[in-house]
Amino acid sequence: MAVKGLVDLHCHLLPSLDDGPEDWKLTLQMLKKFAAEGVTHINASPHFDSDFQTSHQDIFQKVEQINQLCEDQALPIKVFPSQEVHIFGELVAAYQAGEILSIANRGNYLLLEFESNQVPLYADELIYQLALEGITPVIAHPERNFDFMKHPEKLIRFVQRGALTQLTASCITGDFGRKFHENAEKLFKMNLVHLIASDAHNVTSRASKMREAFEVVESQYGRNLAEQLNENAWKVLNGEKVIVDEPRVFKKKWFGRFKS
Known about the structure:
Number of strands: 9
Strand order of the largest sheet: 3-5-6-7-8-9
CATH topology: TIM Barrel
Distance between the termini: 33 Å
Number of helices: 11
Largest sheet: 6 strands, parallel
CATH superfamily: Metal-dependent hydrolases
């Protein structure tokens, strides 16, 4: 990989807000691991769903505190505010009402999470409505969604309508289990990988594997793709347009291999 630092667009780093670190000690441990991996910019993305609806004030305050902590600890990391938004029918109205934070709070990209076992019928319309708002959805960890993997044509349709995909680093390395690792490989073969992020929650069971994931991509798919994926993350973080290649569309018979 080039010298340019890694960007992590999906990370549960803010203490005591969701199912990420419980306290500042654990947050600092995560930051030190990120620094060791060469991650220089992090989009902090606490959950926005029925279980967690953290106030923006809390997010902004803790992001500011983390950036001060990085400065005090001489860690070369910059953190930005955001949310990982669980898909729901009134999402666009909630965004219009200012209830949801986009990636880095720039108003260009939204980190969107689906249920692990389904893609709701209203998702097509929702992605269309987000586009009218000037928002590009970044679909979090599609390799962990059984509906997408059983029916990849659904994911292809969303990408063709402008959405991006973000794979979990630990799925690429195999640390999240063999099935998700195989799913990630299938998405690479279909040209359906646009971003890599850690989705880290701690330094043990849900630790960051960013450096290892990029090493796997470079080894298996080439340095150009590894560098392009990180460049895509820089563009998303800065609110710039990401140009992606067309997905590889296979015959219907071939989809059978994707059944979970």
